[in-house]
Amino acid sequence: MRTRNLHGSLTLLFFASGCAALIYEVVWFHLLQIAIGSSALSLSVLLGTFMGGMCLGSLLMPLVVQQRHHPLRVYACLEFAIAASGLLLLGLMPFVTTLYLRLGGHLWARLLVACVCLLPSTMAMGATLPAVAGWITTSPGGMSRVGFLYAGNLAGAVMGTLVAGFYLLRLFDVSIATFAAAAINIAAGAVALLLARQTELWPVAPHDLSSSRSHSAPGNSAPIYISIALSGFTALSAEIIWTRLLALSFGATVYTFSLILAAVLIGLGAGSTVASFIQRRPDVDSRTALGWSQVLIGVAIAWAAYVSTHAIPFGFLSASASSDPWRTFRYDFVRALLAVLPGAVLWGASFPFALASVAVPGTNARRVVSTVYAANTVGAILGSVATSLLLSGSVGSQHVQQLLIAMSAVSGALALMAKTGAEIRFSVWLAIGIGVAILTRTVTPIPGPLVAYGRRTPDWVQTTRVADTGTIIFAGEGLNEFIAVSRGATGELTYHASGKVQASTLPPDMRLQLLLAHISHLVPARPANVLVIGCGAGITAGALALGPGVEHVTVAEIEPLVPKVAAAYFGEHNHHLIQNPRVSLRIDDGRHVLATTTDTFDVIATDLTDPWVKGVAALFTEEFFELAKRHLRPGGVVTQFVQLYQSNVEAVKSEIATFVKVFPNSVLWGNPQQGEGYDLVLLGQVDPIRIDVDALQEQLAQPAYRPVLDSLRIVGIDSAVDLLATYTASGADLGPWLRDAAINRDRDFRLQYLAGLGLNVDESRSIYLDMLRFSTFPSAVFVGSPAAVQQLKAAIASFHR
Question: In terms of DSSP H, where are the helices of 455-506?
Fold first, then answer.
């Protein structure tokens, strides 16, 4: 086979490898987040292990595989191994999850599970490029071919990201996605074996024509390895920061994360391609090119900071909400490209430039590629872990980006000074230092309105021009999300998380929060031990703690900043929840808390953010509700907040149908506004629900329940009949309406894909009216004296009129 045709075939094979690898990455992170949680700590463990495996595979490849082994056969074996391990992991995940829970959910257990599950596959992935690189000469021209293979791999990764995020997992599940990725691996391995039969062991001449050109001796390679490691650090750190910032403006859906990752990968692939072409020119010095690429990355970071925090939310790049999600996705993709492409192109170009900078003709090409790749990956691991666990929550995105600009300058200076004399090194440092000082000043704090209103920031800007919308009194950045608090013109407080209003002291929100709280503790006969998943402003948990029968409340909150904000700004409204001695706080993913505890509860209340936020759907799955059921004491209840606004009928049906499937004995309580839908509370119990209207009225009349009744009166509920009149329907009533609903399961997280398509849709009125059409008065649920039951019937009819 001709060499040119062979390299074209190799590029296609690496395209396939990249596509399969990103599908696996999405699937594995999905599965392992269910097992070990989705907190910042868990995600850092997963990402660090994934990249660490690739680094290890790259380093070990030259030590394990000899020159006598045919590169294509080695590549084929690696592809088959990846497919086999991917399929094996899919089958072993239930056992892995069980083992992890038996180990108690500690940090070392998370790391152990991540290593066992990810290292075999990722080591094989990391070994593919060095395996084939043994076929290529260690010359600038030869290293440019490695750059093309790397670009092909990144192009495949773009395809894998989009296929997984927009097709395989949206329409199917993790099994189908895994089978698709494995099929790609097997096909690539089979083609590689076929090519191996048609290709000699050494189809490339022992020296490349391009190696005969005048090229400076590489000299000391240590600065290049440090430079490319710093490049990896800044690349992954910036990607994390940009994803957080752009998700504010786009909405933190699963689609948004896929689009941003695809945009970054496109830039990396384009940069690698361009650099590989440039490297072929005889007048190009690779070290100089690497140095200037790194220096210019500082400019690109400053550009991305401006675009993501000013141009997109406030400037000409802002967009009004469209009810067509696909139109919105296209526009968001263009905006993401505009922000991240300059930096991604430069990072992509740096890899082939670094390869050529350390390549010495006659040395082992596999070792050159593996060590440069490993150095870049080690930097990336450090960047991702440091940013996720340390920098974002402590110093904030503004200062992280300023630090990355300085690091890029240092990286560039190291590469540039390797080619300069001592007499001009001072000038290089001085010029770069001045540039860094100027660029870092252009990176400003994240605007408060963006933190508070996210993708609705343009609407906020328009509103403030005609009316007093209040003041943002706090805006902060935590490990997992951004938090803000605003005070309205009349003094009401609003709690914002990740660019969206999540709670407030306004009547509609207070009614929902207090309804969720008091229904939760008044229905069970003995609500002694309570678990609340999601702290927010703390109003729901604080109201729950008012119940005289409530002895202890555990609040699970994934973001450490949230309880501090709840205590500082909402203490008066949440009855000083955080200081309450009967309340304990767990900073962790709520599902992980429930899965790893041996406690049982009388009440499990979930007061969550929107289901379209990536990962939240894990707390709406059939398996999660089954987990909650196993932790219920006899007579206990599970309650769940369901939003109708900014959603579509498919998502709402999925939420309710999944809950009703696990809790057939369920009741829906409504919080309509002006007779139209707004949000709901679901209440489920293992046994049939019985609520004695007379007994509940007598209970609320007792002196011990005075704080509870005072709390309900804040939102116009003066009696047991007023409270129960919010009844909307029973799970049994809604059976015909839910017949076509998609059940949300761990294997697909169907809800987050459905809800993500309804981000700019508001079908709350029609959804609510549809449910009411199926509603009947549940005589088996509401019992008591004929007079009390008749009074309740009339109150329900009046409430929904």
Answer: 457-464
